[in-house]
Amino acid sequence: MRAILMSVFSFFAAATLSVTNSLAGEVEVLHWWTSGGEAAAVQELQKMLQKEGHMWTDFAVAGGGGSAAMTTLKSRAVGGNPPTAAQVKGPQIQDWAELGVLTNLDEVAKAEGWDDTVPKVVADIMKYQDGWVAVPVNVHRINWMWLNKAVFDKAGLAYPKTWDDFFAAMETLKKAGVTPIAWGGQNWQEATVWETVVAGVGGNDFYKKALVEADMEALKSDTMVQCFEVMRKMKQYTDPNAPGRDWNLATSMVIKGEAAVQFMGDWAKGEFTAAGKKPGEDYDAMPAPGTEDSFLFNVDSFIMFDVKDKDAKAAQAAMARLILSPEFQVVFNVNKGSIPVRSGIEEQPFDSIAVSSMGDFAATAESGGLMPSMAHEMAVSPAIRGAMFDVVTNFYNSDMSAADAASKLAAAVGEAM
Amino acid sequence: MSEAKRFNPLDYLERTLPKLVIAPSFMAMMVFIYGFILWTVYISMSKSTFLPNYDFVGLIQYVKLWRIERWYVACKNLLIYGGLFISVCIALGLLLAIFLDQKIRLEGVLRSVYLYPLSLSFVVTGTAWRWMLNPGLGLEKLVRDLGWESFKFDWLVNSEMAIYTVVIAAVWQSTGFVMAMFLAGLRGFDSSIIKAAQVDGASLPRIYWKIIIPSMRPVFFGAVIILTHIAIKSFDLVVVLTRGGPGYSTDLPATFMYAYAFTRGRLALGAASATMMFMMVMAIIIPYLYSELRSRSND
After folding, report:
1. Long-range contacts from A406-410, C-beta under 8 angstroms, 24+ separation
2. Which domain holds residue A93?
3. Chain B partners within 8 Å of A61 (Cβ)
């Protein structure tokens, strides 16, 4: 059945694309980068592609952190009319590749030396059966802790490096009348904190076993119970109005000094910058306790659908090449607030937090601490990720015991496999 | 040759025109509603993951569905929300309609006041109530600022109570509509019957309770049907008001279906939940329709 579906797919894809792309080198790009800095960043790619004489048809679908765009992509693909390129990330790349509808990018990859510049952990996600089928664009680090400097100085506290120090500091801050942790009560934010805790409490190997391989023994282990206990302990240092709060509102609590810390990926930096705050003076960012040697990454990427038209193929190759070119990597990532996904990029245009992130990216790629983020769709299939989200958010928002949570986690993941 | 047998094109047109005019919309309905219901039922018995796949696997997805704790939460919420929403809307709507029917001054203004929420979408209603019910922004803060320091109204952020905030917002939105339906029914009521009852010495509440409200049966029927389908398809209100949270404590079958089918790449399971929803509607509506229509034909 799958074979039939695939052939029907590729037939329609070929038929329609060869018609629509008879114009010289046109790419239709589906993406969900529609907000300020992101839109500016993606426009740079458009300009660079146009400079090389190719046409860019923008197909932006806003909303839902990409879920609206994915729904659109599926309906276009089922209708036999997929766009030339689409923003798809993590294990979903494999799902599309398995249908046999993607272009193999090995030629560009070899010419540009992607294998030497992109870390292997990232490259493996972009490859299907050892061939490149997706182009990585940028890297966000997830396991950051954002701290308001003035709040810590006033309480006479040093930045906590271990979980014991962290909870001691939170206790002091709570007594001082500050909300210690700025919490956004939405399932993906709770999962973001949770995976950071899993890396921080369990360590890198445990994180890989539990959240990347979804290993049953690891999921119901005592270490996992400990991780849930840390989550439970955090709750008493959050304010009662947290449920439903957006991440940027939580960030603004830290900016205003109403709260002391927030656990969030490095896109939070944009909020601080927009509020006119300076790193090192007004706020600081450091890896969450216990995660100095971990780098949970969220990498955006583009997949290219198979096209028969020669000019369109050339435009596709050009787009793939440009995305990983040093010029685009700099201009895009400075705009978006992320860091380059390839090595050999000068540090000068980036801010201090990005520079330290770039150093850690290279170092953890060597040490094995570079790991895909579960919460941000890099590690496990959407079905398993959803099952994990449900257990974590249900645990956090009820009085379930940590031991129950770990066994429910294993059961839910088993069901979703 | 008799007149009747002669072919008259105009007659023919007159007979077939209605069918011709209705045919396209009938076809569209057959395909886009009933066809897709059947398609969904088939998908629910397939292996579909993130794209449709037509390999038949039987009822496995239903077995899986009924093992998922979140589905039970969603169904329980639908019972609480649907039950309260329908009964409170009808009770309040009827009460308001009876008050408005007392030939009071400014009736037109009051009627608009109660009907106005209906002109808002559930998205707007949800956003407004999210702000009002947020303990740190809305009602609780207001009352505390007015001096009642210990006042507590934190249903929105309380897993146990959050589903009731959805009821509050939905009732606020739809009561005016039910009121309008009852008001129309009351206006159509023959006033000579009321006068006759008054001559016989019946009090006004008694007249309403024993004569007028029982005669509103068709209005109740209409209101229940309309409110039931609003309750079951509720999606936007929950998404905006509570985002299904805290946790997934305010999940409804519709939001469950969306999450599984479209964001988790489990199309077959999502289709199974949609089919279950469809069966729930049928289980409620069919007996009700049957009893209503039968009793009416007996009248």
Report:
1. A406/A219, A406/A220, A406/A221, A406/A224, A406/A225, A406/A228, A407/A220, A408/B69, A409/A219, A409/A220, A409/A224, A410/A216, A410/A219, A410/A220
2. 2-140+298-367
3. none
Q: Determine the distance in angstroms separating the CA of A354 from the nearest CA of chain B, rounded to an integer.
A: 31
Share of residues in chain A with pLDDT > 70 (%): 94
Closest in B64, B154, B259 to A240, CB measured = B154
Which CATH number is B234's domain given? 1.10.3720.10
Cα separation, B250 vs B74, in Å, equals: 7
Name the interface residues of B facing A (CB cutoff 8 Å).
Answer: 49-55, 64, 67-70, 130, 134-137, 154, 156-157, 159, 162, 242-243, 245-249, 259-260, 262-266
Task: Tell me if B134 and A241 make a contact (CB, 8 A cut-off).
Answer: yes
The tens digit of pLDDT for each residue in B113-165 reads: 888 888 888 899 999 998 888 888 888 888 888 888 888 888 888 888 899 99
Going by the DSSP 8-state scheme, the letter that residue A265 receives in this structure is -
A363 touches chain B (CB under 8 A): no
Structural domain boundaries enclosing B98: 68-298
On whether both A273 and A403 belong to a single domain, the answer is yes
Instruction: Kindly state whether A231 is in contact with chain B, defined as any CB-CB distance less than 8 angstroms.
Output: no
Q: Which residues from A are below 8 Å from B70, CB to CB?
A: 390, 394
Q: Under a CB-based contact definition with an 8 Å cutoff, are residues A246 and A237 in contact?
A: no
Confirm whether B271 is domain-assigned.
yes
Q: What is the mean pLDDT of residues A182-211?
A: 93
Could B135 and A241 be called an inter-chain contact, meaning their C-beta atoms sit closer than 8 Å?
yes
Q: Comparing C-alpha atoms, which of A182, A194, A338, A337 is closest to residue A246?
A: A182
Any domain includes B85: yes
Distance CA A29, CA A135 (A): 13
Same domain (yes/no): A174, A129: no
Residue range A47-96, pLDDT digits in tens? 998 888 888 888 888 866 777 888 888 888 888 888 999 999 899 999 89
Same domain, A282 and A403: yes
Return the CATH number at A335.
3.40.190.10
By CA distance, what is A397's nearest residue in B? B247
Query: Is 0.90 surpassed by the pTM of this model?
Result: no
Chain B residues in contact with A88 (beta carbon < 8 A): none
Record: contact A186-B259, CB cut-off 8 A = no
Considering its fold, how many domains does chain B have in total? 1
pLDDT in tens, B33-78: 999 999 999 999 988 888 888 888 889 889 989 988 899 999 999 9
Handedness of CA A13, A32, B260, A188 (dihedral sign): positive
Q: Is the distance from CB of B252 to CB of B76 less than 8 angstroms?
A: no
CB contact under 8 A, B245 and A185: yes
Q: How many whole angstroms separate alpha carbon A221 and alpha carbon A384?
A: 18
Q: Is residue B54 part of a domain?
A: no
CB contact, 8 Å: A362 with chain B? no
Does A205 lie in the same domain as A275? yes
Indicate if A127 and A21 belong to the same structural domain: yes
How many structural domains is chain A composed of?
2
Is the same domain home to A267 and A412?
yes
Q: Kindly write down the DSSP assignment for every residue of A240-261, as one continuous string.
A: TT-BT--HHHHHHHHHTTSEEE
Summarize pLDDT for B249-294 with one digit per residue, the tens: 999 999 999 989 888 888 999 999 999 999 988 888 788 888 877 7
Contacts (Cβ under 8 Å, ≥6 apart) of A140: A265, A266, A267, A297, A298, A299, A338, A339, A376
Alpha carbon separation from A272 to A179, A269, A337, B77 (Å, rounded): 18, 5, 11, 39
Which ipTM did the prediction report?
0.80
Same domain assignment for residues A402 and A342: no
Residue B244, phi-psi category: left (phi > 0), alpha (psi -120 to 50), beta (remainder): left
